[in-house]
Amino acid sequence: MTSEPMQVDCKEAAKRLNELIDGELTPEVEETIEHHLKDCARCMAVFEFEEAFCRFVKIKAKRQTAPEGLKERILKELGLSGNSCNE
Amino acid sequence: MYTLILPETVEVGPVGFSPDEKREAFEKEAIPYLDTVYRVALRLAGDSTQADDLTQETMLKAYKAWHQYKQGTNVRAWLLTILRHTFINEYRREKNRGTTVDITEFEQFTVFHDVQEVDPEGRFFDRIVDDEVLRAIDQLPEEFRECLVLSDIADLSYAEIADVMKVPVGTVKSRLFRARQALQRVLYDYAVEAGYIKRSVR
Ligand SMILES: [Zn+2]
């Protein structure tokens, strides 16, 4: 409560959005960026757009599964039963 | 401390582990990531026959080398290190596979600025089908594509990606940023052409 959080400008915040989305910032920097987003509607809008885009890519790119025949071949080769094949 | 170097073909488990225990551990810890390994293999190799072979070879190598896997570390990162190594050494023959976008030609601006008036939440992205997204990813230059795939398909951290690709974390950060920006641009252009969104005049 006593110490003012570090300040960043829009340019600096924009540079950190990917790291914020990926959970790669230190807690202090994360707090600083989030603080800026709360006060800056424009950066917040960009953040939400980027976050939605990343979510979209992750979903779309993760829908394929290994072909059943391939799974069976690998398990057989290794002498495994295949009870734990699902993520 | 001695490092025991064994020929690749000799199967050994960690000291004190029976072959059964090794099999059980591998099945429990590595096999669940078969789909992830396959998805990454597809994006690296670019065709499904090669992706099948690459996936199989990766899993067999991982099984043989299971004693080298450090318990408690990210098994996905370990499997993908083997995959990448195998791909680079045995599969990456023809350098030219399809069109590659020139990443330097992209302005380093988010598509948000183009769509803020008409679709600030980027809902038009949801209309783009999976195959089109995968095709766009495949157009990225290899080192950028790898970063994006390891992050967004395999969910590795920046440090883990740096480790797999043997580049500094800063390089991962900037490649991932540019890869996402380029992908966004390619998909936006596609969405405009498909009529999902109107191009704004800037
Ligand atoms: Zn701002």
Structural features, described:
The complex is a heterodimer of chains A (87) and B (202). Chain A is mainly alpha-helical and 87 residues long. Chain A has one domain (10-82). Chain A is built from 4 helices and no strands. In chain A, helix 1 (10-21) packs parallel to helix 3 (41-61) and helix 2 (27-39) crosses helix 3. The longest helix of chain A has 21 residues, at 41-61. The N and C termini of chain A lie far apart (43 Å). The mean pLDDT of chain A is 89. By secondary structure, chain B is mainly α. Chain B folds into 2 domains: 19-91, Rna Polymerase Sigma Factor, Chain: A (Orthogonal Bundle); 103-193, Winged helix-like DNA-binding domain superfamily/Winged helix DNA-binding domain (Arc Repressor Mutant, subunit A). In chain B, 56% of the residues lie in helices and 0% in strands. Chain B is elongated, with a radius of gyration of 20 Å. Chain B starts with 18 loop residues before the first helix and ends in a 9-residue tail after the last helix. The structure holds zinc ion.
Quickly describe the structure:
The complex is a heterodimer of chains A (87) and B (202). Chain A has helices at residues 10-21, 27-39, 41-61, 68-78.
